[in-house]
């Protein structure tokens, strides 16, 4: 019996867009199709010196375009499909999601960063402090922020010092 080694992306339902986007972009990079969502189709995609080359290029582009388009459709919930059903390209879908969810993520980053900065070592149990601190870090990351280890260490030291 052959083992099926297929990669699947979790269905995006409007939560954790930044993580879903990372997964979908890495998958497309793995498949060699990342360019389809990184830029719009331009006229140079259709032009070539030889007519057969043009037809072959168009066929390959159309195949890749349809594959990516269908894959993105299969990796989103019905609610998200309502938002992007009128869009024609994978590039436009990702662009629309960026407009919808990256702004929200920026606002959430501000809220979660403030929450993280307010975590203080006021607990009788040290494990409760670590749990709250890690939870605040994870919430900030889920909102799309990147936190380097050095910054995490500074926040940790700041939260353990008393004023």
Automatic annotation (TrEMBL):
This protein's UniProt keywords: Membrane, Transmembrane, Transmembrane helix
Any stretches that span the bilayer, and where are they? 59-76
| Name recorded for this polypeptide | DUF4219 domain-containing protein
């Amino acid at each position: 019996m052959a083992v099926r080694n297929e990669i699947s992306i979790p269905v995006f339902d409007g939560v954790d867009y930044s993580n879903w986007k990372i997964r979908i972009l890495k998958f497309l990079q793995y498949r060699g199709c990342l360019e389809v969502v990184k830029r719009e189709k331009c006229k140079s995609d259709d032009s070539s010196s030889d007519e057969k080359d043009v037809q072959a290029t168009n066929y390959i582009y159309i195949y890749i375009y349809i594959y990516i388009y269908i894959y993105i459709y299969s990796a989103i919930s019905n609610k998200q499909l309502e938002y992007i059903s009128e869009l024609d390209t994978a590039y436009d879908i990702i662009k629309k999601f960026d407009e919808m969810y990256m702004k929200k993520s920026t606002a959430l980053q501000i809220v979660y960063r403030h929450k993280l900065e307010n975590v203080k070592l006021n607990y009788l149990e040290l494990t409760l402090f670590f749990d709250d601190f890690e939870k605040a870090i994870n919430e900030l990351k889920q909102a799309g922020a990147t936190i380097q280890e050095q910054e995490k260490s500074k926040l940790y030291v700041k939260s353990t010092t008393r004023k």
